[in-house]
Each structure stands twice: as structure tokens, then as C-alpha cells.
Amino acid sequence: MSTPIVETEIADQPAVVERLLREQEDPIRALADRLRARPPQSILIAARGSSDNAGRYAQHVFGLLCGLPVALATPSLLTLYHTPVRLQNTLVIGISQSGASPDIRAVIEDARRQQQPTVVITNNTDSPLAQLADTVIDLGAGPERSIAATKSYTSSLAAIAALAVALRDDAQLARELRAIPDAMAAQLDRDGAVGTAETWDRCMVAGRGAQYATAWESALKIKELSGIAAEPHSPADLLHGPIAVVGPKHPLLTIATTGPAFDGALEVVGAARDRGAPVLAITDRTSEARAAGADVLVVERVPDWLSPLVAIIPAQRLAVHVALQRGIDVDRPFGLSKVTETT
Amino acid sequence: MSTPIVETEIADQPAVVERLLREQEDPIRALADRLRARPPQSILIAARGSSDNAGRYAQHVFGLLCGLPVALATPSLLTLYHTPVRLQNTLVIGISQSGASPDIRAVIEDARRQQQPTVVITNNTDSPLAQLADTVIDLGAGPERSIAATKSYTSSLAAIAALAVALRDDAQLARELRAIPDAMAAQLDRDGAVGTAETWDRCMVAGRGAQYATAWESALKIKELSGIAAEPHSPADLLHGPIAVVGPKHPLLTIATTGPAFDGALEVVGAARDRGAPVLAITDRTSEARAAGADVLVVERVPDWLSPLVAIIPAQRLAVHVALQRGIDVDRPFGLSKVTETT
Fold first, then answer.
1. Which of A89, A82, A145, A143 has its CA nearest to residue A109?
2. Å from A182 to nearest chain B CA?
3. In order along chain B (343 residues), what is the average pLDDT of each group of 10 residues?
4. Burial of A143 (0-12, 13-18, 19+ CB in 10 A)
5. I need a surface site. Which of B6, B58, B72, B204 has the fewest CB within 10 A?
6. Regarding predicted confidence, which is higher, A196 or A41?
7. Across all residues in chain A, what is the average pLDDT?
8. Cβ of B84 and A77 within 8 Å?
9. What is the pTM of this model?
10. In the predicted model, is pLDDT for residue A335 greater than 70?
11. Residues of A labelled catalytic
12. How much of chain A, in percent, has pLDDT values that exceed 90?
């Protein structure tokens, strides 16, 4: 059997991110200069699927580094209810790998009507969506031929991180970001074994802070590729009720990397183990995770704010691995189509 | 076996909502008058669990009726990262049945420091959270003794709807809202049979627009009470990937009520049926839902913007029914605790 395309695309990620950081540095800096001249009060993000998970990262990182409140748009208000919300001093960012989503386009069109600054982050700069925006950030991920987005997701994260750093204008953070492609490459050099996850047929996924996005994207990859149920939650929300489903047949995957959210991501390991659930932790603190009762997938230690760029890699590989074990055509799983033209 | 408390609390909902609309009319009108004198540019909502699902309804209804952008807060930025985002002209609303969540309190405290108007919607007006707010809306649901929130959820929806109507100052909408307790009572008079759902051991839940909140809250009740996996999505997001898990062993519950989101909620019925999945629709358009291949739970027809107050009732009863079939103590399922003091 030939190597699945998705594995090649996963392996491409360090090079794609490195290229994005290099080739988009000037347009991102120019955008940040314009925004600093007339600072937005808030950010609105319109995206779907993996791009929406990149939006969850944006919510964290623009808040953390720039003090900006970030809302995720509800396109249905525009496309179904034809009721725009009033925007003032709002930077509106559309994220779409294909640039083909009519609902994302509707949000950007509305932002233009309301004379708000617009940015589109896309892998298709010729798309109708890209034509609309004041500024386009080209993901430059090359053709993504597998149905499941991988390199366009991490490239979106890098674009968001680069814009946040440019807005903050911080040389140390910029150095940390430039070191990320090497950490991603080191991650790919690690063993991709997934242990007992091979036998899972459902799971919960936990992550918070920077890794909230990783929990969502991990769950989406697992669902899309392997067809097993995988629901993301922050540890805080998980303990508020959904923990009820966790048990011997319903394992937990937790993203527990060094940073302010580590303790919470470890706490749920204990809660899940108390219910008899197998737990797998994507972690850079293996002995603590093992002591709490988790099996581990080791992740490179990087600064917390950048950890989603690295921690998603073992989750992507886990999703592929579980799918292959189940005999699934991972490049065309379940008749999914690459572009879903939802309105 | 005696009647479970949660069934009594579900049955109490029309009376609780009627009381809220009556007793909180004056404080809500006074709040709306103050806000109209100095209109907020946006709303930020802090909540967890069922209250967060009420926040999803707020996102829809304040956008639809008041043109206000609504963001759901990320308390981790405050409680874990100690980094407040800058708020300007933002109405900050905390929703907490118990008033005991430290993370919701942190968001309200920060809003006060930033001199933003604050509202707390709570069932415990003596709570520390309630003490902090400029305005308190008392859910007046009486003690909620079952672990799973039911009457405090619908009472929160009613409080949000009442505030949106008062801000919009629309007599016709106010009349529609006042008619809702009767529609809820009529819903409770309907047969609560759930058909084949008794045998489910996992499901996906779809809903959009007004019913996006219902999809989330239905999924949460099903998880909390019955311990079966239940993941909520908008139909648009579902088709972007998560539909992959839907199949013969993974049914779909869709909230398909009359309104702009109906077509999308019906479209996913076809997509799920194509994958061989059983589908149950909570709907007021039974012949269309049946023609698409769904079994139906009939819901009273009410104005779309208020439909979440009625459509959640069959979902609550479905969750209880499935749990009882599985021999679960529905008032104390899975060792969950009523107040989760997450930070």
C-alpha cells in the first residue's frame, strides 16, 4: 500500500509553516502597522471546521498577547436571518482553506459594508473570498489533496501567531515563533505509536487555554478520519457534566502540556481514571502524566502560546493510525467532500 | 419507584418561566432603560454548562433582536493566564444557576474593574456572584435538587429573551414571550414517548440559528443523565466533517422547527439516512421530517426566536427516558456534583 497523502501532508507541516513565516512576514508586518495606527477594539472571526479551530486559537492568542476580545461569528444571523450585527472598530478575520465558503464570504461582505477592516487567511488567494478582503494572508500550504485538513490548519495557526506577535511588536516572541518549524520537525521524528488507542471506538478530548484549540482539532481529525466519536471540552466544562460519559469503554485523550492549563488537564486524568476510563495524554511532562494514570504520547516542549502548533501533530497521527487500523481510506474517508458550501 | 425529582422539575418549567416573566419584568425594564440611555456596543457572556448553552441562545437573540455582537468569554485568560482583555462599552453578563463558579466571578470582577455594566442571571441572589453585579436577574426557579439543570435553564432563556425584548422595546414580541408558558404547558401535555431512542448508546445532535442552543443543551442533558455520548453541531459544521461518525450505530437527533434554520436541519436528515443512521427529529413539521426519513417528537409551534424554550422539553424527557431505561439514578447520575468550582 502506498503512503496515504494525508501522511505526506502531515510530514510537510514544518516546511509549510517555515515558508509561511518567511513569505508572509512583510504583509503581516504591514497589516500590523496599519492596525496599530488605528487599533481595533475587538476581533470577529468567521470560519468553519478546522479553520474554526484555528479561530479558537486566535481567541486565546489575541487575548493573551494583545488584550483583544475575540468573538467567533454566527454566520446564520446573516445567511439565514439576514440580520447583521452592528460592528464598531472590529477587525474581521475570515479563515478558509479553500476560500469557497459562502457563509464566511457573507461575514466578510457585511464587514466591508460596515467599513470594518478585513483580513482573509486562505490557501487560495484566487478565491472569491480573498478578492473581498483588505488584506490576504496566503497560507502557501500548496494543494491539500487529502480531505482532512492538516498542513492548512497548522499554517493558519502560524499566520495567527505571526499577526499577534506583529501587533504586540515583541522580538522575543518573534524568535520563539521562528523556532517552531524545528520543533515540529523534531516532533515528526518521534515515534508515532499510539498504544491502546488502536482499539478505541469513541473518546472524549480535553484541553484548555492555548490547547483548547488542540482539543477541538484533535477531536475533529479523529472523527473525520477514523469515524469514531470524539468530543472536545475544556477540563472545566468536562467536569460540569460531560464527564458522565467517560468510563471503561469511553476513553479520554487529554492535551496536558507545560503552562497555566497543565494542572486542569492533569486533574481530568484522575477523574477519568476514577471512572475506569483509559486515558492517553499528549504531554511534555510524562512522569506526572504517567503517575496520574495516563498512557502518554510525548510532545516537544515549546512555549505554551505556541504549543498547539506542535501538540496537534501526535493527534493527527493518532487519527490516521486509528483509521488505518480500521481499514479506512484515510484520504477519502466516509465520502466527505473537501469543500462544503454551507450557507 | 417514586417519581424522579428531575421529572418534577421538568414539569415545573411553565410555572417557573411564567413567574420569572412576571416578577422580573420591572427590574428587566429598568435595566433596559439604563442600557438604552448608554447603549453597549457588544455583549460578553460568562457561563458554564447549561448556562453556557443559555449564552448560545443569548448570542442568537441579542444579535437578531438588538443587532448586538455577543462573545462567549474565555475565563481561562483571567483565571489561569491573569490577562484581562480590554473591554469598551461592553455589557458583561454572568449566568450561573448556583452563583458559585469562581471563573464566572472572575469575569464579572474584571468587568467591574474596567467599569463596564454587569448583569448576573442566577437562581441564588445571595451568592457572591450576585453581590458583585450592577443588576441581578433572579431566576426564581426555586431549589433545583436534581443534578441536571432543567428549570433553571429555561428560566435563563426566558430572562435573556425578556431582556432582548425590553432593549428592542417591541410590544408584539413581548406578547409572544408572554404566551410561552402556555406553549410549554401544552408541550408537557404531549406524549413523551421517544421511540427507538431507548436503544441508543450514542448520538449526534444538530440545530442551528435559534436552535443551536437547543442542540447543545439536548446533547448535554443526554450525556449527563444517560451517560451516552451526544455531540452537538450546527448542520453546517456537521457536514464539514463530523458527519463521518454518523451511521447505523450512531443516530442523529435534529432540532428542525419552523424558521430560517429549518431547511438545514432537515438536510442533515437526508445525509444521515444516506449513511444508514436512525434519525429522530424534534419538529413541528412532522410530515416533512417523516418524508425525509426521520422519526419524530412533535413540538408545539411557536415563534422561531422563542422555540428553544419549548423544543428543549422533549429533549429533556428523552434524556430522562433513556437514562431510566438504562437503570440510572437520574437525580444523582454518575456521581456528578451540582456545583463545580472550576477556575
1. A82
2. 26
3. 89 98 97 96 96 97 98 94 97 95 95 98 96 96 91 98 97 98 97 81 96 98 93 91 91 98 96 96 97 96 98 96 91 70 56
4. exposed
5. B72
6. A41
7. 94
8. no
9. 0.96
10. no
11. 338
12. 86
Instruction: Tell me the pairing of strands B70-72 and B90-96.
Output: unpaired
pLDDT of A1 > 70? The answer is no
Q: What is the pLDDT of residue B257?
A: 98
Q: Which residues of A touch B268 (CB under 8 A)?
A: none
Q: Do B236 and A48 touch (CB under 8 A)?
A: yes
| A261 Cα to chain B: minimum distance (Å) | 7
- The predicted pLDDT at position A340 comes to 56
- Considering B221, B223, B249, B338, which one is annotated as catalytic? B338
B223 is catalytic: no
B48 to A236: CB separation less than 8 angstroms, yes or no: yes
Positive or negative CA dihedral for A220, B246, A230, B324?
positive
Question: CB distance from B90 to chain A under 8 Å?
Answer: yes
- What is the distance in angstroms between the Cα of B246 and the nearest Cα belonging to chain A? 8
Residues in chain A with CB shorter than 8 Å from the CB of B228 are: 245
Collapsing DSSP states into helix, strand and coil, what is residue A151? helix
- Taking an 8 Å cut-off on Cβ atoms, the answer to whether B90 and A84 are in contact is no
For residue B261, list chain A residues with Cβ-Cβ distance below 8 A: 76, 80
**Among partner residues B68, B225, B340, which is closest to A85 by beta-carbon distance?**
B68
Are residues B60 and A83, on separate chains, in Cβ contact within 8 Å?
no
Considering only alpha carbons, which residue of chain A is nearest residue B64?
A83
Q: Does B207 touch chain A (CB under 8 A)?
A: no
Confidence of residue A254 (pLDDT cuts 50, 70, 90): very high
pLDDT at A16: 98
pLDDT at A339: 58
Residues within 8 A of A (CB atoms), B 156-195 only: none
CA distance B295 to A17: 47
Hey, is A157 helix, strand or coil?
Answer: helix
